Amino acid sequence: MYIKEVYLKNFRNYKEQIINLNENANVFYGNNAQGKTNILEALYFAALGRSFRTYKESELINFNNEYSNILITYVKDNKENKIEISLNKKNSKIIKVNGIKINKNSELVGNINLVIFSPDDITILKQGPQQRRKFLDVLISQLKPKYMFELTEYNKILESRNASLKNRSIETLDIWNEQLASKMEIIHKYRKEYIDKIQEKLKVIHPGLTNNKEEITIIYKTNFKDKESFLELLKKNEQNDLFKGFTTEGAHREDFEILINNKSLNLYGSQGQHRTAILSLKIAELKIIKEEIEENPVLLLDDVTSELDEQRVLSIFDVVKDYQILITCTDLAQILKYDCLTKNIKLFNINSGNILE
Ligand SMILES: Nc1ncnc2c1ncn2[C@@H]1O[C@H](COP(=O)(O)OP(=O)(O)O)[C@@H](O)[C@H]1O
Ligand SMILES: [Mg+2]
Fold it and tell me: Which of 250, 271, 294 is the endpoint of a domain?
């Protein structure tokens, strides 16, 4: 699939802008803080219904305006489609897919399939579990909108259980335990399935990136076995949860770990090993999406040449030869040196929210 046109109105530092994209490589270059990442953010927003930088949607609206519109025209399965988003500072959001208003994010995700790689990703294997869960949740949600729906339901139940813990409404806990365990069973099944799929891909990708020197393993860190035992665990934790005022076990606490040659990457990995491992994960993500939707996802590369060396960048380009790519950079020469891109490339100079093709 590919994005054909992006229209932005009052989005971040863009007043009104139409961007016609090339089906292959698109490079957005310019100094810092000119609006390069903002373009990727608009696309991500249209794909997933949220930003990768902020939870506050009002931040996306231009400082001097009350509303913002994004209109994305994309081609998938040889058909042209449109996603339209209207944001208002009064916190209202309207999303239309091909003219039809949708009510849930889970109805939006999966229409535009994309993978984003940004400098922030470099550290996801080092930091706390939140970013890793997000990686997994975004991947699965794109392919199984039902998963996003179930996860949203899970979070609502979790909020209710946590409220009961805080108010010490002990009599309601049984109900929340039961509902949480039911949702947990569904979420666990999806996560297990996709961790297994990632492992399958990593097994091939990672040795290729490391001259066969490294073997990689992904481990799903979960305390869920089946619904019954999870219910018991929730019950057993009740006193502790009441003391802490929140639910200490469940989908919202899960994680995954990466082993390199059977040793924890987090504990023993070098900076370079972290970079290669995250690269392998991103390539696995691209391949899984491609396999399942039977089309190429769009790849967004935010400032990657600042973080990845030439060989690592080449290994990405090698996978995405016929994909649509949107690349941001400050130094155009850092991108133009890759011959594999220059055959079909469109350049956009970004300067204070103005774009020169
Ligand atoms: N809501 C907004 N209204 C107007 N300008 C904004 C808004 N949000 C961010 N900006 C501006 O956008 C610029 C940052 O854009 P960004 O795409 O992150 O830059 P870069 O080109 O470095 O990737 C900054 O100049 C910032 O002031
Ligand atoms: Mg940027």
Answer: 294
* Residue 160 amino acid letter: S
Q: What is the pLDDT of residues 81-106, one digit of tens each?
A: 999 999 999 878 999 999 999 999 99
pLDDT tens digits along 147-206: 999 999 999 999 999 999 999 999 999 999 999 999 999 999 999 999 999 999 999 999
The answer to whether residues 99 and 127 belong to one domain is no
Indicate which residue's Cα is closest to atom 16 of ligand 1: 35
CA distances from 262 to 90, 153, 258, 268 (A): 51, 36, 9, 11
Of 28, 34, 354, which is best to mutate to test ligand 1, by the most ligand atoms within 8 angstroms of its C-beta? 34
pTM for this predicted structure:
0.95
| Positive or negative: CA dihedral 63, 64, 65, 68 | negative
- Which bound ligand lies closest to the C-alpha atom of 35? 1
Residue located nearest, by CA, to atom 18 of ligand 1: 37
Question: Are residues 289 and 314 both part of a single domain?
Answer: no
Nearest residue (by CA) to ligand 1, atom 13, is 33
DSSP state, residue 112: S
Which ligand does the CA of 32 lie closest to?
A: 1
Same domain? For 68 and 176 the reply is: no
Full domain range(s) for residue 334 = 1-113+296-357
Type of residue numbered 279: L
Instruction: Verify that 206 and 330 share a domain, yes or no.
Output: no
Distance in Å, CA 317 to ligand 2 centroid: 20
